[in-house]
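Reply to dn_fold:

You asked what the input looked like. This is it:
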Amino acid sequence: MMKTMKFDILTIFPKIFYSYFNESILKRAQKKGLIKIGVHNIRDFTTDKHHKVDDSPYGGGPGMVFKIEPIYRAVAKLLSSKLDVRSEQLKKAQRSNKHRDRATRTRIILFSTRGKKLDSKTVKRLVKYDQLILICGRYEGVDERVAEYIADEEISIGDYVLSGGEIPTMVLVEAVSRYLPGVLGKYESLEDIKGSYPVYTRPEQFKPKAQNPKSKTWKVPKELLSGSHKKINEWRQGRSH
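and this is what came back:
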């Protein structure tokens, strides 16, 4: 039976995702029913007339902090159950409980500069879930109780700071989707399967339009034109990363 991976994204800027998720591989994957992407505006889960999602930090300091209430309500709705019913399971000390993971098949991720760096090993682990709930922070950060009691883990995509979790979300959605059977045309298209090496295509020779008539012609390596699978594989292996 074909698996459908569901991504539910919590953000205050839902329009950021529309173009990216409706192009190329991700568009085809959605049409095939291999993935389902839901983008949810956190402001829809506020209760005040101004739809306020942030407030000043306790203890003072610059910037604003995402409030816990709208995030709590959004996640509770996506889980089709109240979080307080399973609050003991959501405590930080029990996040790694394997029985819970198998039972829910859902992983809640908060993007944070303090999170574990996203790598191939983490991506392959996340592919095993049926649903990923992705929380995009903004401003000065997110109320720490989201990390403590709601999120299962925190993830970062690198040692640098972005304005929010939207770009990291796009990175994770594509990285995870690529490992789902049927999303890529060929399984060998995954770089960690075939290795990453230089590639070329036609024309075999390219002469740059330069004022200097003595400029060199840019050529495809002769090994790739040899027709010998052995020579081609050796050339690629020698330059693979």
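The chain has ten helices and ten strands.
Hope that clears it up.
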